[in-house]
Amino acid sequence: MYTTRFAHASHLNAASRQQAFDAMTDDEGVDILIIGGGVTGAGIALDAATRGLRTAIIDAGDWATGTSAWSSKLVHGGLRYLYNLDFKLVAEALKERGLLLEKTAPHLVKAQPFLWPLKMPVIERAYSAVGIGMYDAMAYAGTRGRRTVPTQKHFSKKGALKIFPDIKNDVFTGAIQFYDARVDDTRLVIDLVRTAAGYGALAASRVKLTNVTKNNLGTVIGAEVLNRETGDTATIKAKHIINATGVWTEETQSIANQDAGLEVLASKGIHILVPRDRIKATSGIFTMTEKSVLFIIPWQRYWIIGTTDTPYTEDINNPVATSKDIQYVLDEANRLLDNELTADDIIGTYAGLRPLLQPKLKEGSEASSTKVSREHTVTEIAPGMSAIAGGKLTTYRVMAKDAVDFALGETAKHRPCVTESIELVGATGYRAAEAARSSIAQAQGWNDERMTHLLERYGAEIHDLLALIKENPELGKPLEHAPQFLRADVVFGVRYEGALHLEDILIRRVRLDLEQRDRGLTSAEEIIALMSEELGWDAATEQHELDTYRARVEAIAAAETETTDRAATAHLSNAETVVG
């Protein structure tokens, strides 16, 4: 079990954030400074901290503000890459999937079955079976002979209809069921940052890089930063800076060097959510479309359906689903669904930007100073500063290893990566907590559905949630307008997960932004009251939090009526933000 010291250190809150900011800006400096608090940056922070390096991580926004919050929420090998004969990439991703399922985050990452509908009864089943069989075999090899998910199953048309009754009769002749895994992407990032903090990393959200400092030889030796919560500026001395800012890579690296680094383009992907009872099925569906892939993924209370893959050149801070995007996803889903969906069925939408790494470096970069894989690349921007981009959520740990190895250079062999064996917060003791679910449920008066929900959010940290409720029984009550969540979920988010603002709770911790048509606005005042008591807000601050979140909700609603990215994004770009 974690020590009390580790547990306390892994608690992110307003006080720990300020302490971390003060520590990272002291005269001692840090060994590694990571810019970017998405899954890649968070993974790098954990990797570096567990090698014994004095590590700091900052992000201009909340943790997982960017791409990492808006994925398809899958941990997968990438079956489509296998059909492109990219065996190494698929094998790597399947190994990482097995680690997450079995060791590092079994509470967050769950095996998920998918049906692959077949249109041709013999030929397609034969070559698909070979492909999926290879996929299963590679997963088995990657986990050294341990079966972390079930292997493929073949179904006749009649058998497939028992699993997915809502599929159209004329679009398939049978199906193959295979397994991947699903994850709450934002919780994964937050838990990575928290685990890194538990091992000594200094973590401060809403701290923006404004400049880098160099010595007289042109080596980067630190970063000038702005604390966006207080307006204070400071300098962080660093032996090495790693830029892990995804679609912001070029913007960030240009601060150090206008002429070198990585070229990254943005591709937009959107998803829609519909209520779980709207589609009758017990399995997800995966199929290829003309422009992308289509996932129909079951979660506890809803289905996530996506995605798109379209070039994006507008404001990268504010991607949003347009009416054209939404209609495309509906149309693709309705090619398969017998009980067709309409816009009225949609309870939520979200959009994210995937950073597409270009096959060439910027002109000033040297190939000798670059480590390239098929999915991600690490390169030197300037002496003392590197950048990593590309890759995908599933392989964040491998990307983190490569980034830290690159930063350490020859000394990396004396400080090897150890994250294959590092459990995230909530993982240690998770299976014991799972075994105690009946007694916990009985003591609290919770049903099995709530226990599943809480164990998949907190793992073994359900005991910390119970401690909050014991301290204040009022926290055991459900939110009035969102009874799937407890009042304790809000306080946990503030005390332990670094939530500083209303949007941090509604968008990334108690994600009503996803699963309610009003994006959680009807629960905002109740949540503000709970946060205000924790954070000491005055009436003006409470009103500002409510007003800015309402403005965001209204801006997204207006954006979803537009047909172009430019018109849609303008609504969000013009909306007031919670900090300047």
Q: Could you explain how this protein is built, in words?
A:
- With 580 residues, the chain is α+β, with helices and mostly antiparallel strands.
- It is globular, with a radius of gyration of 23 Å.
- Helix 5 (87-104) crosses helix 6 (123-142), helix 13 (437-444) packs across helix 14 (448-458) and helix 16 packs across helix 19 (524-535).
- Strands 3, 4, 5, 6, 11, 12, 13, 14, 15 and 16 form a ten-stranded mixed β-sheet that branches.
- Helices cover 38% and strands 23% of the residues.
- Strand 17 (370-372) and strand 18 (376-382) form a beta hairpin.
Strand content: 15-25%
Q: What is the gyration radius calculated from CA atoms?
A: 23 Å
The tally of helices reads 21
Compute the separation of the termini in Å: 41 Å
Mean pLDDT: 93
Structural class category: alpha+beta
Give the CA-based shape.
globular
Helix content range of the residues, please?
25-40%
Write the layout of secondary structure elements.
Elements: H1 4-9, H2 14-24, E1 30-35, H3 39-49, E2 55-58, E3 74-75, H4 79-83, H5 87-104, E4 109-118, H6 123-142, E5 153-156, H7 157-163, E6 174-183, H8 185-198, E7 202-204, E8 207-214, E9 220-227, E10 233-243, H9 249-253, E11 262-275, E12 284-288, E13 293-298, E14 302-306, E15 310-312, H10 323-334, E16 348-361, E17 370-372, E18 376-382, E19 385-390, H11 396-408, H12 430-435, H13 437-444, H14 448-458, H15 462-471, E20 478-479, E21 482-486, H16 487-496, H17 502-508, H18 512-515, H19 524-535, H20 539-559, H21 565-573
Parallel strand pairs: 1-2, 1-10, 2-7, 4-12, 10-19
Antiparallel strand pairs: 3-6, 4-6, 5-6, 8-9, 9-10, 11-14, 11-15, 11-16, 12-13, 13-14, 17-18, 18-19, 20-21
